[in-house]
Amino acid sequence: MALTSRQKMGAAALIMAFSVLVSRFMGLFRDKIISWQFGAGGETDIYFAAFVVPDFLNYLLAGGYVSITLIPLLSSRFEKDEADGWRFFGTVFCWATLAIGVLSVAAWLAAPRLAPVVAPGFDAAQCERLSHFLRIVLPAQVFFLPGACLSAVLYIRRQFAVPALMPLIYNGCILLFGVGLPYLGLVRGMEGFCWGVLAGAALGAFALPLVTVRSGGLRFMPGLRHPLMKKFLLLALPLMIGQSVVVLDEQFVRVFGSMAGDGAVSLLNYARRIMMVPVGVVAQAAGVASFPFLASLAARGDMDEFRATLGRTMRNSMIVAIPVTAWMITASGPVLGFIFEGGSFSVSHTLGAAPLLQIMLVAVPFWLLQQVTGRAFYAMQDTLTPAVVGTLATLLAVPGYLVLIPLMGAKGVALVTTACIMIYALVLLIIACRRWAKGAFAGLWGTAWRNALISMPGCGIMLAVMYDGFRLLSSLPPLLQQFIVLTVGGVLFVVSWLVLTWFFHRDYFHVVASPFLRRMKRAPGA
Question: Which positions ≥6 away from 454 have C-beta within 8 Å?
């Protein structure tokens, strides 16, 4: 039976959500190993800071948005003239590889000078170690950008499974090298994780999509000139210049976290890792899966269906995002403890990271607004507006960090980051409504606040389970205590939410439960 466009988008969203979920848990497992071995401070601060320059180069060349910029143009070119489409692809691929190669070599040579700029709070010994890490991680960028070009072809072909595997291979290599190389005595400290980044980029971000694209037909026509390059650059340039708080968020945490005391970078990073699980599973998956469909509708000029698809994606995602966020804010302490406590990561580290996580989690629904609305702008071939709004939000963030860090330390970093994401998302939403999304977001805020109210009883149950559970289970090992509390509290929260939605908002219930109910009906013997 042929799938409808809505079903295809739903299937794509589920594939991407599952991929992000597994990838995030692999990332958390990686961070668990890091926290167990190294705790918070020293070597971990250096490791996390080592990604500032490589990630900035990627953002400078709009690496995370190459496929988004390329998809509408390449898709249109393929439909009109496939041979010319491959010539355009070859031109973009060559320029992307050349640009990131030159910048990476320059940064590699300048690593000793860049280290104190990246982490102004580090001493000389830490900067020397950071410079060494930088020179291992920087070459990975040479694989990410060309890999993004190949991923664009896969998205056009609606082959979501391979892009979903790419981050899994990347994280798997980091784990393998991070644990294996020190065990073999080849490296010390966290250097193995840096080599894992390089290997993961080469295999997961480049080799896998290359092999897949070739299996489906690849006509590589290298070149440096094509008529569409001007339009491509005009679309990509705002993303290159306008570094928004969304893409710089992680870098700000590292740079300004180094000014908030020893261990602050690590604690902020651990908290952010957990916050990014619901962001990735709900927000990013919804944005990535909806983009090809929104781009297709925009290209056809079907704005009624465009707005309907945009609004439906936003509301359905918000139905999931709100309760997940509410539960995680309530259970932030046990979540952090269960994932990271042990070895060099103590209870005091959990207590230090918990309020940071709670502050960051407040931004999750706004991440959703930004991810979906931003891609709607890109589908309309408007990259300038998100870049301008994001840049202004970024400029607001810098003085905020400088004012609040002396007053609040790491909490100030978390608070400013959250506030800027909220401002960015809301301004972007307002502009979209005034230009072309009128009526698309009708009922969105009602969905959000009603869902928040429905989640409150479950949060109360979670608090009660935490209070009584830890008291009754005090004789058990801490890890087992946290597991039982999270499991029992989580199940009761879900049951509470499902029961309340069944009686008061059955449409919410069906959005969450229908995919599982359909699969149960299709199961053999059902």
Answer: 323, 497, 500, 501, 504, 505, 508
Q: 91, 230 in Cβ contact below 8 A?
A: no
10 Å CB burial of residue 72 (0-12, 13-18, 19+) is: buried
Tokens, residue 69: 């910029």
How confident is the model over 321-349, as pLDDT tens digits? Answer: 999 999 999 999 999 988 888 777 888 88
What would the pLDDT profile of 430-482 be if each residue is shown by its tens digit? 999 988 888 888 888 899 999 999 999 999 999 999 999 988 988 988 889 99
- Separation CA 225–CA 277 (nearest Å): 41
d(CA 272, CA 165): 23
Main-chain dihedrals φ then ψ at residue 329, nearest 5 degrees = -65, -45
Cβ–Cβ contacts within 10 Å for residue 340, how many?
26
The C-alpha atoms of residue 85 and residue 144 are separated, in whole angstroms, by: 22
SS3 per residue for 408-441: HCHHHHHHHHHHHHHHHHHHHHHHHHHHCCCCCC
Residue with tokens 């945490």: 253
